[in-house]
Amino acid sequence: MKGTVQTKTTKKGIEYLYIYLDYIDPITHKRKQKAVSTGLEAKGNKRRAEKMIQDYIEKYQYLEAPQTDTKISNHIGLCDFLDYWLERKKLELRQSTYEGYACRIHSMKDYFKKDNPELIALTPKNFNDFFRYALEYGKINQKTHKREPLAVRTVRSYHSILHAVYSEAIVDGITKTNPLDNVPVHGKKNRDYNEELIFLTEEEISEVLHFMDRHYPRLVGITFMGAYYGLRRSEILGLKWSAINWDKGTISICHTVVRVKSVMAEDATKTQAGHRELNLFDTARSCLLKIRQQQTEDKSFFGKQYANHDGYVFVWEDGHSYDPNYISRLFAKAMADFGRPEITLHKLRHTCCSLLINKGWDLKKLQYWLGHSDASTTLNIYSHFNRKRLNESENDLNSISAAASDLFDGVEEIC
Fold it and tell me: Same structural domain for residues 213 and 351?
């Protein structure tokens, strides 16, 4: 198998680098090609993409492996087939996605493992009973150790996985029908999930940053990047010094640090749109220079014990990387102390969007800055903020209708 780096241009005219893998199909013995996105923009990233070729060759080596006829018993248990399906998926998924699937499957197996019923024996009623159980007793409260309802969204993700599992079982010839086809997950409709969007004003953000500087100094830069750049937690903790071009005045968002079961660093963003190059404005430059100065002092103090070999911007004093969940918990504690416990680290993205709307940014510019792959996400925040601003602003209709006010002279106020 060989790999080459080539350029593909999106409909928006942005050039991205892809790795094209050439391999011999083990069945037809014909040469085939597979294109894999690197998530990197073409300009200035070719060498970086070329270094990724070997990793992709190893990941997709199975394409050249002889296909073994692994006959699955028609009497295989659901739990066993769930494991088999997940193992098959492992080669196709990002590690974080794979771990998310693994957590869901582990929870589903807890319900079915006692009898481990045969895949072909389960009926729509069995799954309907399972979903009802999950909606009422699907999780265990870590403090009280009592069973509690599971979020409808989570139960719907169970449905999606099980539906995909049975679809594959049909392809494998184990069953002819999918029992999930007509089994709904009752609960809230999607529109009921529209979270309350909370926005901080320019003055409030300044107050928060000064509060962090006094009481939670390690959160100052993180809060700054969330509020003014609208970066996701994974993008903030994945920011490297190498992504900052001091001469050009840009920050490249191209690396993330995420946690599902384990902490993973990836040269990829949540979506392709998440890979973006943003302006390094003056205050941000000063903020990052201060952090770099402190890191230089820390590195000198710890010497060989200093651990930040990957060049991350936000790390512990000894250079070790933060656990993403620790940062979320610390930020929640800080905002509770500040008196605004409803503000999460992710909600700073909404604040960033609102600040830029106030400055007259259009939707497409906002979408790029925030890294939204779907403009509807940006539009939702945009419209929500404008509704909020309309309700809080002075009613312009008073001045507009002033010319007709003489028609109603002499009317007394009703008390």
Answer: yes
| Domain span including residue 155 | 78-193
Distance (Å, whole) CA 314 – CA 219: 9
Q: How far apart are CA 349 and CA 234, in angstroms?
A: 13
DSSP structural state of residue 312: B
Can you tell me the distance from the alpha carbon of 358 to that of 365, in angstroms, rounded to the nearest whole number? 13
Q: Which H or E run includes 159?
A: helix 152-171
Given a contact cutoff of 8 angstroms between Cβ atoms, the answer to whether 221 and 314 are in contact is yes
Contact status, residue 38 vs residue 52, Cβ threshold 8 Å? yes
Structure tokens at 358: 């106030």
Q: Could you tell me if 261 and 362 are in contact, meaning their C-beta atoms sit under 8 angstroms apart?
A: no
Q: Going residue by residue through the chain (415 aa), what tens digit of pLDDT does each one get?
A: 889 999 988 777 788 898 999 888 776 678 888 888 888 888 888 888 898 888 888 877 777 766 554 567 888 899 999 988 988 887 777 776 778 888 899 999 999 988 899 999 999 999 999 999 999 988 888 788 888 888 888 899 999 999 999 999 999 889 999 999 999 888 655 444 444 567 788 899 999 999 999 999 999 999 999 999 989 888 999 999 999 999 999 999 887 776 544 455 555 555 554 578 899 999 999 999 999 999 999 999 999 899 888 889 999 999 998 988 899 999 999 999 999 999 999 889 888 888 888 888 888 888 888 887 666 666 766 666 555 555 555 555 566 556 666 666 766 666 5
3-class DSSP string for 291-350 = HHHHHHHHHHHHHHHCCCCCCECCECCCCCECCHHHHHHHHHHHHHHHCCCCCCCCCHHH
Contact between 174 and 165 (Cβ < 8 Å): no
User: Full-prediction pTM beyond 0.85?
Assistant: no
Give the amino acid at 256: T
Q: Which two tokens stand for residue 284?
A: 């941000």
Query: Can you read off the two tokens belonging to residue 258?
Result: 């995420």
Structural domains in the chain (count) = 3
The answer to whether 346 touches 197, Cβ cutoff 8 Å, is no
- SS3 of 182, please? coil
Regarding whether 333 and 224 lie in a shared domain, the answer is yes
d(CA 349, CA 252): 17
* Structure letter (DSSP) for residue 195: P
Do 10 and 49 fall into the same domain? yes
Q: Which two tokens stand for residue 160?
A: 């999606």
User: How many other β-carbons are positioned within 10 Å of the β-carbon of residue 8?
Assistant: 13
